[in-house]
Amino acid sequence: MNIILLSGGSGKRLWPLSNDVRSKQFIKIFKNNQGDYDSMVQRVYRQIKAVDSDARVTIATSKSQVSSIKNQLGAEVGISIEPCRRDTFPAIALAAFYLADVQQIEKDEPVVVCPVDPYVDASYFEALKELSDLAQNGDGMSLMGIEPTYPSEKYGYIIPNSADKVSKVVTFKEKPTEAVAREYIDKGALWNGGIFAFKLSYILKIAEELTGFDNYKDLYDNYASLTKISFDYAVVEKENSLRVMRFSGQWKDLGTWNTLTEAMDETIIGNGVMNDECENVHIINEMDVPVLAMGLKDVVISASPDGILVSDKAQSSYIKPYVDKIDQRIMFAETSWGSFKIIDVEADSLTVKVMLKKGNSMKYHSHKHRDEIWTVVEGEGMTVVDGVEEKVSIGNVIRLPRGCKHTIKALTDIRLIEVQCGQEISVEDKEVFDL
Amino acid sequence: MNIILLSGGSGKRLWPLSNDVRSKQFIKIFKNNQGDYDSMVQRVYRQIKAVDSDARVTIATSKSQVSSIKNQLGAEVGISIEPCRRDTFPAIALAAFYLADVQQIEKDEPVVVCPVDPYVDASYFEALKELSDLAQNGDGMSLMGIEPTYPSEKYGYIIPNSADKVSKVVTFKEKPTEAVAREYIDKGALWNGGIFAFKLSYILKIAEELTGFDNYKDLYDNYASLTKISFDYAVVEKENSLRVMRFSGQWKDLGTWNTLTEAMDETIIGNGVMNDECENVHIINEMDVPVLAMGLKDVVISASPDGILVSDKAQSSYIKPYVDKIDQRIMFAETSWGSFKIIDVEADSLTVKVMLKKGNSMKYHSHKHRDEIWTVVEGEGMTVVDGVEEKVSIGNVIRLPRGCKHTIKALTDIRLIEVQCGQEISVEDKEVFDL
Lengths: 435, 435
What we know:
2 copies of one chain form a homodimer.
Chain A: E1 2-6, E2 30-31, E3 37-38, H1 40-51, E4 56-62, H2 63-73, E5 78-82, H3 88-102, E6 110-115, E7 118-120, H4 122-136, E8 141-146, E9 157-160, E10 166-173, H5 178-186, E11 190-199, H6 200-211, H7 216-221, H8 231-234, E12 242-247, E13 251-253, H9 257-262, E14 268-269, E15 272-274, E16 279-285, E17 291-294, E18 297-304, E19 307-312, H10 320-325, E20 332-334, E21 338-346, E22 349-356, E23 364-366, E24 371-378, E25 380-385, E26 388-393, E27 397-400, E28 406-410, E29 414-421, E30 431-433
Parallel strand pairs in A: 1-4, 1-6, 4-5, 8-12, 14-16, 15-17, 16-18
Antiparallel strand pairs in A: 2-3, 6-11, 7-13, 8-11, 9-10, 9-11, 10-12, 18-19, 20-21, 21-22, 22-29, 23-30, 24-27, 24-29, 25-26, 25-28
């Protein structure tokens, strides 16, 4: 099975664990067999491989997610990188050319496209395989429709022309009111979960027609010039001969703290305590200090170095405008080379804990407006400061006056405490050089 | 008026703002006229001075609170320092000798003793003046009894022999059940708030009888040998001729988050946001990152570098056993010379932000098992490292290998980032030297 997982943009609905640089699909909340925690991306990838160990998985995403994906899934997974965000049709078109030109799969092979973040069990991936087979044995496009469990206002609806497992699509309906949703469901409507399958040749043809490019490189290079348009508008709603396959297994959208905590195996992740009077309370704590919950009901508490959310679960769907108003510096992030966490902020200084994974280097760079002092607190590395190499280890101090060119290579996993001193500390103040 | 304020021990009932080193009376939560926040101690001191600008205030407390008191009240206030904790009778005895021998007040002057932490208004201090006058114009001891507002199980009760403003005390009753409390109140009982007045000579005589010491120095030097006993047991309940003066003004014990938040002028202190669906919610946030509260009712959220409490207000009275179980390093504290805050903890390193107020020095000291690296991030200071003085300012780095003797004097307010590296980092690993 070829599967393209659409890994959407960053969002604030799961603040403080998701933010402008951390997307919800990378939050580690699902206990795995090793007693460790998996993210949504890791869970889905593991589930796909369990159902079809030969599955070729490609993640369609933006540059900003590449390091998180590689950190979490390793180097084997295919990644189709959108140079900029252009909605789902360009993303799927680019991923299709990536499969054809980079991965060089045959054009008559079927491809399944679905979001990276539904919360599902193995039956979903079994169904994707059926959908893939359906695409292989026919032309055009097949969709998966999810049997609704309640009259949701959050989803679009697919109206099929029969109650058969596979039937023709009569029409699509936009997100309805609850009353209208109830009518649709009475008529046998299905949720549109954005799950499609087709032969690669099918989508390549449409991609070429609509973008004017016929190969990966040209589409990639000209990606910014494409119009933002969703796959639903550009392709699905214009297609006359669509089939839909019913799916009645578990399928949840974990887009809010309310739905996310329903899917958690435990009530506490991280350092947390709650008393017996707590009812339906979840604590997700990524900070080093404890959270104590007393006598709460239907509440989610989520704490990260970016902030602390305490929300009634139903109300947690409405946090976005409040989070948008919070003007908080990004306090931590995973990067391709490791991670960083801001541990102190003063008027003329910033203190950061930097972790580089073994074998990684920073870019060789300098700053105009700040001095930096690194203290190695774990591991070994090789610094280069104005061309001079030096091996460093725990307790060593490296002074980096403004203007000096510097980098460090991690000989083992290495941690530094970096104190930045200056009156105009900014991420913009960085000039990169070849070493 | 001479007034002894008993400043009790540290407690965990207001965790995470109070802990083993920070007592509740020093938490800044009351908005003052300058738009700034006062602690309980500061509020009470300001109120006393407003009612009687000549009042001589002495705080009876332990060593550990002296720096907080000086930081918050300045150098003028009298402090009677208990070398160790021995309950209220020895504390009051020591404070009495402090007034006689150190402050040299006349032995026939009246003295009022009361706790430092009731939440009261000016009428309370007017009443204390009346109580003081009562003591001046009679012998023995006078108490203040507080008109109960509900049948509380938290207080002891005083049974007076009449409903007059001042009457003789018939007897005392221990903390009763609610039903029994209701009976007491029906008979005109008053709450025992631990507020006493007497001539200094009266208490000195009893102190000498019960401790065997007749002056401040001897009592101080032998303080550890005294038996722990409360003033109520040692003195009040043995006194046959007691008068009680009724007080019907505002009087609250701010011992739990529930009662404390009732006394707050604002619903949010620190970086916090709540949506309109929140009802009777308080946020007290001492962290640098924001707290967002959504759709909560009757909840207090309190966050400090030590931890995060989210509690139903009624349940907040029961946090102590849960807090006792939390094994959390003290992450920040005020000291006589400034403050410190632990900003990062790793296996073999600890990073601390240290603030020294202008004119203060650390003790000249060394560590056996750790190196330290200081980076100055604000202000100017003079370091001494193994006898060598050096002036330092922002951006300067001071390396302190294990074994070296070191100190810094703050020439201005100064901030350091101190990285401690070593395998056995402990506050015990410190040897102090004369400079």
